[in-house]
């Protein structure tokens, strides 16, 4: 069922665990991700980013994710990820999205606050996520990461949340989108300092490639929503390549795509278990 993102955040806060937010680009990934949530009987955020909506076309992808969420047997929030343009936020809310992340992280503090204040009005009763500091790397493809992005300043976090009216705060503590160069190094002391002052639950972007122990340490320090994209695309691409190699000229679309969907479902299930129960289950 389609629910307000606030409800799912409250679920994670009450359980002191984290909810998974999975990015989708199309019908197949959407179905694979909903299947994972249903198999685990867990709520999820089903996220469509600005890049995905541009690729698939807003009308089609939004119809797919909203219909899939409505049909699901578990609570699903349909989330607009990393929006930078107010017009896209308005369009998503009008279409029925129940959660929005407005990414003003490239702006100075005051500009980021102003951006979110305007979004707060546009988003109304639905969940609104802001980001303070920067998360390097690309949201839609693995590759080079910027190492120069600023981390979240704990001294700014409380004022940021209060002035913007956000429901959750995405942190920058060394996390990055895409594939990490070497071992990810997260500033857990900074995270603890942010948690100590933040009036809202924290969000971790760039979870692909972060070891289970570090994920658990983040959950212990107040992270209640964790975004995964790259590892889902990896599962999809790797199984798709294997399926194509085995197809033998049959062009068996349901078999090849179905195999890739199963692989994504398996990967997503592991993340749900890790974030909810503290164990990836293999
Ligand atoms: O907003 C989406 C994410 O932060 C996903 O990051 O591609 O590194 O898993 P990732
Ligand atoms: Zn992100």
Description of the molecule:
Helix 3 (about 50-55) packs across helix 4 (about 60-70) and helix 7 crosses helix 8 (about 190-195). The chain starts with a helix and ends in a 5-residue tail after the last helix. The chain has helices spanning about 5-15, 25-40, 50-55, 60-70, 85-95, 110-125, 155-165, 190-195, 210-220, 230-245, 255-275; strands at about 20-25, 45-50, 75-85, 100, 125-130, 170, 200-205, 225-230. The chain is globular and about 60 Å long. Helix 8 links the parallel strand 6 (about 170) and strand 7. It is of the alpha/beta class and about 280 residues long. The protein has one domain: TIM Barrel. Strands 1-2-3-4-5-6-7-8 form an 8-stranded parallel beta barrel, surrounded by 11 helices. The chain binds glyceraldehyde-3-phosphate (G3H) and zinc ion. Zinc ion binds near residues 177 and 205.
């Amino acid at each position: 069922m389609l629910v307000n993102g606030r409800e799912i955040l409250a679920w994670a806060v009450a359980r002191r665990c984290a909810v998974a937010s999975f990015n989708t680009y199309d019908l197949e990934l959407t179905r694979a991700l909903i299947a994972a949530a249903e198999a685990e009987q867990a709520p999820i955020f089903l996220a469509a980013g600005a890049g995905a909506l541009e690729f698939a076309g807003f009308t089609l992808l939004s119809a797919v994710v909203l219909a899939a969420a409505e049909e699901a047997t578990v609570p699903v929030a349909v989330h607009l990820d990393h929006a930078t343009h107010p017009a896209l936020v308005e369009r998503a809310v009008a279409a029925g999205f129940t959660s929005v992340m407005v990414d003003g992280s490239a702006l100075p503090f005051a500009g980021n606050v102003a951006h979110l204040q305007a979004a707060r009005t546009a988003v109304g009763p639905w969940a609104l996520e802001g980001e303070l500091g920067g998360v390097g790397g690309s949201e839609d493809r693995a590759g080079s990461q910027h190492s120069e992005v600023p981390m979240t300043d704990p001294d700014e976090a409380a004022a940021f949340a209060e002035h913007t009216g956000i429901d959750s705060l995405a942190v920058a503590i060394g996390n990055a989108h895409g594939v990490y160069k070497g071992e990810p190094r997260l500033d857990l002391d900074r995270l603890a300092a942010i948690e100590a002052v933040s009036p809202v639950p924290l969000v971790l972007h760039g979870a692909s490639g972060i070891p289970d122990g570090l994920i658990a340490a983040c959950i212990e320090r107040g992270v209640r929503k964790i975004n995964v994209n790259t590892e889902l695309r990896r599962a999809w691409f790797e199984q798709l390549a294997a399926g194509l190699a085995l197809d033998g000229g049959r062009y068996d679309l349901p078999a090849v795509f179905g195999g890739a969907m199963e692989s994504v479902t398996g990967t997503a299930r592991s993340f749900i278990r890790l974030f909810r129960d503290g164990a990836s289950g293999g």
